[in-house]
Amino acid sequence: MNGQDLLRGVDLLNREKNISRELIFTSIEKALRLAITKWQASMVSAAKPKKTRKKDKPEVVPVVDAAVVTPPEPDPDEIREEDIHVNIDRQTGDITARYKDEMLAPEVVGRIAAQSAKQLMIQNFREAESEQVFKIQRPKGRFGSGCGAETGKGRRECFSGKSRITPAPKRADSR
Length: 175
Hints:
Blueprint: H1 3-17, H2 21-47, E1 84-88, E2 95-99, E3 102-104, H3 111-137, E4 147-152, E5 155-160, E6 163-165
Antiparallel strand pairs: 1-2, 2-3, 4-5, 5-6
Helix pairs in contact: 2-3
């Protein structure tokens, strides 16, 4: 992706949805880390040979004293979060992604990993947008705490603290 296009998209989200630029950049970086993790997991699982199960004999597991048991060695193919580095230059919009010592282009992750990244970004942007709306509306008193209950006959009651609010029933328009 072109860095200038990315910056234009970030500015648009910042202007239209009132989401901070830093939150947008960190959401994109987090989403790219997720995509690289999924891509690496699919590459590792595709490279491993399939194991065939033996149905002849059940495997005998020796009983060992718990004090003597050593933890298993880490799998060299295991994907660790600290091996994935994603950075977006806030001035130019250039994306650098690295897995271990290998430089990656974000375009190589594939469509499934990219879809996961897209869903994560959308979720983060919606949460941020909801927080902005809540910050604006809360001082105006438009949100309150309480719960509602159906009382029957199509009426609902809202309870807020000790008070009960019962909206007036809708009346048919008589002309």
